[in-house]
Amino acid sequence: MNKTIKLFLALAIGAFAVFTNGCKPKEDVEAPSSRTLEADTLPHWMSLLPDDTPLFNLTIPCLHDAGTYYFNGDNKLALSIKDQVYDYKDAWNWGARAFDLRIAYDYDWDGFAECCRFFHGDNETAIFFDYGPMNLIYDDVDNHFPAPSALDGECMILIVKKEYMEDESYTINVFEYLMAKLINKYGKDRFIAYHDNMTLGEARGKIIVIVRNEEYTHNYQKEVGGCTTPLVPINYATRFMDSKDDIITTITTESDLHVYVDAQKVATYKYHSQDIYDLKDFSYKKKYDAFCMLAGGNPMGHISFNGMNAVEWEDVIVAELPEGWDCCHRMNEWVSQAFEKHEIYGGGIILCDMYGATTCGSSIGTFHGDRLARAMIRHNFTK
Hints:
12 helices; two-stranded antiparallel sheet; 13 strands; about 375 residues; alpha/beta; nine-stranded mixed beta barrel; disordered N terminus
């Protein structure tokens, strides 16, 4: 082979190598769908997805009764009220992007700030035994919520419900206090109004507040502590399907989500929710089937709420106390498996118990919470 042919072949091989290497995705820009999502990825999984991704077509993990991380114990009371092991910040690093917040006014001699708590339980038994109060709102927001920088590229959704008011006249004051703490931490410009077909690009770095009580759509500027809290967009979900609704009705009945800006209603959208709550017949399969029915729906770019949480009821002395750990143990495993096998679509906000946690005391085996977290997040990269 003469020198001219050898040189030509060398140049051709070199050009081919340069061309193919230039077209091959580099390791640091590899398509997110081919990544293996591990612990160092979960804290910023939304950042790996394209801006045009429909936000509510994603599977978004939500901590049901997020404030219960604070309650410790491995007894009948713990079985009834402890739904989470990790606080908001640690759960965020496990991929959670939504938090179910139950707020309360629980009188304290030390002043108003000490009266504003997260709570679990609005029934007389809970109040009598004083096992409803969780952590203080200011302590949780200041010390246990994700840092503002953690939201960069991500989106946080807060679902707020009135749980208990020792004095109903403080209902708006407690909500304003919560909003004041959040706005002080994150800034008022982070809060946005919901609309159908919202993209991830629109929601990056933002917070969506969804309330379950109509009172919180009012002008909440009550100047608690001598300062006025800025008004930010509030989104009001009129009804959650969370009692003894028939499964079919639960899935097919639409509810209204009203959007308020400056305490004025500017839009109304439709949404679905499912949360079979009262399982006195211990039918975990009923709960799972209802979950799968909503999770298997066609994505429409609309917000939805799908509950994995549930309780049984058990007599303790003369009082009935709910207990949910056994159902959670089964649901977390079954739903993890369904996501791993791509048997369900699973878009929307999904309320979970024991998210990210393997164990909690010695009452039960694994909660599969770590498996659930990875299965839910990875599902967003396989659609």
